[in-house]
Specification:
Layout: E1 9-13, E2 19-23, H1 26-30, H2 40-52, H3 60-67, E3 77-80, E4 84-88, H4 89-108, E5 122-125, H5 140-165, E6 169-172, H6 179-187, E7 191-196, E8 199-204, E9 206-209, E10 223-226, H7 229-236, E11 241-244, E12 248-254, H8 263-277, E13 283-287, H9 296-304, H10 306-309, E14 313-315, H11 320-328, H12 333-345, E15 361-366, E16 373-375, E17 383-385, H13 389-398, E18 416-418, E19 425-427, E20 431-436, H14 439-442, H15 445-460, E21 470-473, H16 478-486, H17 490-495, H18 517-526, E22 531-534, E23 550-553, H19 556-565, E24 578-579, E25 585-586, H20 588-591, H21 595-605, H22 608-615, H23 623-626, E26 665-673, H24 680-683, H25 694-701, H26 719-725, E27 744-747, E28 752-755, H27 756-765, E29 770-773, H28 786-793, E30 796-801, H29 806-814, E31 818-822, E32 838-842, E33 852-859, E34 862-870, H30 875-883, H31 886-903
Parallel strand pairs: 4-5, 4-9, 5-6, 9-10, 12-13, 12-15, 13-14, 20-21, 20-22, 22-23, 26-29, 29-30, 30-31
Antiparallel strand pairs: 1-2, 3-11, 7-8, 16-17, 18-19, 24-25, 26-32, 27-28, 31-34, 32-33, 33-34
């Protein structure tokens, strides 16, 4: 039963004549709160607290706080209950594993396991498990799909069990598309509804997702962002997300895009600008008349990259273009009319005449200034004008590592390697991988059509990619294949090696598959800095492929162009890309399509019926998925021999109840000490791994051969493997093991350098708590919950950093790991902390959010103390920490409530 504490529930009548309830924001205006100029994104948060207000987990003062949002930074905690949750399989499998483990724990504690169920709609899209093993052939798609099912059979059987065991839980099967594109094109409704009292209440679609690029949906005017799996699980179980009142940066858009520039170029420029501005943990909301010159796919491309510019969201309000997009993608007319009626009734519908909202701060971009660009070689915010690309790469070869260079000496600049079995030689800057991939760009028809047109013109001139380039096309949905084939462009992409290799998040997350061995030999022979060019959003070290050190983000047509050129050393704007079949040089300008060419094909090849046809019955569309046998029952039958799915140890010793007071951490040692910009890719197990790693040895001991290792991501349901892979990234530079690269540390129980996992086990055997020290932006990158889970299972009690990325900080608290931040410009280095000291973190028993605490470190009998800040940011996070984590808190709460129901 609805509380309706503010008398805000009203009736909305649609064109269809159906009366619906909604919680009218205008009621707050009548009660004296001026909400008319709030940012649109804040209005969505306001509607949520207004509708959910119950004076329990959403209080009347929460409504007043959001209604009174101010541009200045406020340390005010607010709750937010999203309408739904979306998962991808890498993060979704461990989430479902945790739910299954909670059911087992619930039974063991004498409760009803059926009480553990998602309370709001949850969709899991299986898109992260397919890998580019075969490429450049007509059979690549079928063979990669067959390998995907062979490698992931056990995981898929588990998900099939979850599909039947849990309520409110749907699965989009493999080979359907990338989670964010499926969300944008199909799952998102704009307006959600649920039964309430004697009718139905409607409210804004909103969500959290276990992938940081959940923000793509912000392009459709839907509030949503990425969270860790543990946080998403709590939301699934009815808990609000507790967050600090967001600052909102207004990003004004003017003008229109020039000829030759793409949505990717625009997204890279916005990413660069916002990283320079500093928007970590803030909302970014786009406004201004220039929005009317942007298509919704262009907006979604920018919104997708919010994690790259550090914002919680990159939000575009609902307007006429949003309605047009819903029609173009085959949504029902009644649904579209409801979206229009609802947002206009709430004063949340943008037009060019809409007064500018009030923002915390503003910045501005004229679209006419956008130029073709790439970003790299190591970070997505390091944008490079295409005209400067060859120069910037040459400078990067000798630039220091700290300046994101490769620090090559002059005598190594001319190094080459010979492709095995040929007389072909490659040098630094050879493009060994070119991939049209990732949700960022494959959801945008304009850049994919452009790539097809570049391919067409290249084929007509007799060009082919260089033989050392691994080429691939991973469409974000089957709609992409439909319109590329309808336009006659897929055949040209096939002819130059860009055959479809799978429908999933592939190269961008490290599922690029192996490079051909002859190419690997050449790279090794010359110790070469070779390059990848991909239409992705992430290019951190070690992510795309372990043999490729320079990685550049680029638009799909530029990906094709660089595959043809085969190198980033040449000036692609003025030097020939290749020689045509007529013996004449071919330049980029000969291949690049005009905006009019692109638009003509889009108008001819894309229609709403195409989307309806692809998505109708998509949940049952994969016959291989449908053929997987389903295990019945509410409880999962754990197999102790499984190397994919194991019951995690998170709920051990749960019966004792939460700690009443917070205890200090005493006698701790340092496991890992790192510098700035350490990403969750460095921390969390991701990509492939070798037989001589702790995870590889674990599998070999169980009879699993390296060819069947699969990836860390595919084994996220097994904590034994994931713990062994935490901090095992081959590019990790742990200062406690100077001269090494990868998952190594100095084990102070032995004085020897060993793997981080083995050292952690020795510390655990001696009951020694562990710490991690880090620099700025610790945990930036994807919302990998295993970056926190693995840290916890290694025995790390606290992470002490100069600053944290938003999601990872939250995930650490959610796993019972204490995030601590240096104050007053202090750093580990400025304090002289080497890492071989003994440490005490002195905490008050009644610890408060963001409280100053004491870090004491001792060496050779001499102690020193420094004040640091506890980064447990909200009161509810204090409860999570006392309980040992967010899942333990939720499970204990459900258990107590169920006991109360039994007593009643």
């Amino acid at each position: 039963m609805a509380m309706n504490l503010f008398g805000a529930r009203d009736t909305l009548t649609t064109k269809a004549g159906q009366p619906l309830y909604y919680y009218r924001l205008g009621r707050l205006q009548e009660l004296g709160h001026d909400v008319s100029k709030l940012p649109f994104s804040v209005k969505v948060l306001l509607e949520s607290v207004l509708r959910e207000a119950n004076d329990y987990d959403v209080r009347q003062e929460d409504v007043a706080a959001v209604a009174g949002w101010k541009p200045v930074n406020e340390e005010i905690e607010i709750p937010f209950k999203p309408a739904r949750v979306i998962l991808q399989d890498f993060t979704g499998v461990p989430a479902v594993v945790d739910l299954a483990a909670m059911r087992s724990a619930m039974l063991a504690l004498g409760g009803d396991p059926n009480k553990i169920n998602p309370l709001i709609p949850v969709d899991l899209v299986i898109d992260h498990s397919v890998q580019v093993d075969e490429f450049g052939t007509d059979f690549a798609l079928a063979n990669n799909m067959a390998l995907e099912f062979e490698r992931n059979r056990e995981r898929y059987e588990f998900l099939r069990w979850g599909q039947q065991a849990f309520d409110n839980f749907g699965v989009v099967p493999p080979a359907s598309g990338i989670i964010h594109q499926v969300n944008l094109e199909y799952l998102a409704k704009g307006v959600q509804s649920r039964p309430e009292d004697d009718g139905v209440v409607v409210y804004p679609d909103s969500l959290v997702g276990t992938d940081s690029h959940t923000t793509m949906i912000n392009g459709l005017g839907i509030v949503g962002w990425g969270v860790g799996g543990i946080e998403a699980e709590a939301v699934m179980l009815g808990q609000p997300i507790y967050m600090l009142m967001p600052e909102v940066i207004g990003f004004k858009v003017t003008g229109a895009m020039p000829e030759g520039a793409t949505a990717t170029d625009l997204a890279l420029r916005v990413t660069q600008m916002l990283r320079e501005k500093g928007v970590v943990g803030k909302f970014v909301e786009f406004y201004g008349a220039g929005l009317s010159n942007m298509t919704l796919p262009d907006r979604a491309t920018i919104a997708n990259m919010a994690p790259e510019y550090g914002a919680t969201m990159g939000f575009f309000p609902v307007d006429d273009e949003a309605l047009r997009y819903l029609r173009r993608t085959g949504r029902l007319e009644d649904e579209i009319e409801l979206v229009e009626a609802y947002y206009k009734a709430q004063g949340m519908f943008r037009t060019d005449e809409t007064p500018d909202p009030v923002f915390t701060d503003t910045m501005e971009l004229d679209l006419s200034t956008i130029v073709p660009s790439l970003a790299g070689p190591k970070r997505p915010q390091d944008r490079v004008n295409l005209s400067d690309m060859h120069t910037v790469f040459a400078e990067a070869l000798t630039a220091p590592i700290k300046a994101r260079g490769f620090e090559l000496s002059q005598d190594k600049l001319g190094a080459t390697g010979t492709i095995g079995g040929t007389d072909l030689q490659i040098g630094h800057g050879a493009v060994t991988l070119a991939s049209i991939t990732s949700c960022t760009n494959t959801s945008n028809p304009s850049v994919l059509i452009a790539a097809g047109l570049v391919a067409k013109k290249a084929v007509e001139r007799g060009l082919k990619p260089k033989p050392w380039v691994k080429t691939s096309l991973a469409p974000g949905s089957r709609v992409v294949t439909e319109y590329l084939e309808t336009a006659g462009l897929q055949a040209y992409l096939d002819q130059i090696g860009f055959n479809t290799v799978g429908y999933g998040c592939m190269t961008c997350i490290g599922n690029s598959g192996p490079l051909p061995e002859p190419v690997v030999q050449a790279i090794g022979e010359g110790d070469l800095v070779v390059a990848s060019v991909l239409s992705g959003n992430r290019n951190f070290e070690g992510r795309v492929n372990p043999h490729i050190r320079a990685n550049y983000l680029a638009s799909p047509p530029l990906v094709v162009a660089y595959a043809l050129a085969g190198t980033v050393v040449n000036d692609i704007l003025s030097d020939p890309i290749g020689t045509g079949s007529d013996g004449r040089p071919v330049y980029l300008r000969d291949l690049w399509p005009t905006n009019a060419e692109i638009q003509t094909i889009m108008d001819q090849a894309i229609n709403a019926e195409m989307f309806k046809r692809v998505y109708d019955g998509i949940e049952q569309s994969n016959t291989d998925w449908n053929a997987i046998p389903v295990s019945e029952g509410a409880l999962y039958n754990w197999n102790p021999e499984s190397t994919y799915i194991q019951n995690p140890p998170f709920f051990e010793n749960l019966a004792g109840g939460p700690s009443e007071i917070v205890s200090s951490i005493e006698g701790a040692r340092v496991l890992v000490k790192v510098g700035d910009s350490v990403t969750t890719d460095h921390i969390s197990p991701a990509g492939s791994f070798k037989a001589d790693t702790p995870a590889g040895k674990y599998l070999m001991e169980r009879g699993i051969q390296p060819k069947d290792f699969n990836s860390y991501g595919s084994r996220r349901g097994n904590d034994r493997i994931m713990t062994r892979g935490t901090f095992a990234n081959i590019r990790l530079k742990n200062q406690l093991a100077s001269g090494t690269e990868g998952g190594f540390t100095t084990d102070y129980t032995t004085g020897q350098v060993s793997t981080i996992y083995d050292a952690a086990q020795n510390y655990k055997a001696s009951n020694i708590p562990l710490l991690v020290f880090a620099g700025k932006d610790y945990g930036m990158g994807s919302s990998r919950d295993w970056a926190a889970k693995g840290t916890f299972l290694l025995g790390v009690r606290a992470v002490i950093a100069e600053s944290f990325e938003r999601i990872h900080r939250s995930n650490l608290v959610g796993m019972g790991v204490l995030p601590i931040q240096f104050k007053n410009g202090d750093t580990a280095d400025s304090l002289g902390i080497v890492g071989d000291e003994f440490f005490d973190v002195i905490l008050p028993g009644d610890l408060k959010p963001r409280q100053d605490v004491t870090l004491r470190f001792t060496k050779d009998g001499v102690s020193r103390a420094v004040t640091v800040q506890c980064r447990i940011d909200t009161p509810v996070e204090i409860d999570y920490y006392k309980n040992g984590g967010i899942l333990q808190t939720v499970l204990r709460g459900i258990l107590e409530r169920s006991k109360g129901e039994v007593k009643a």
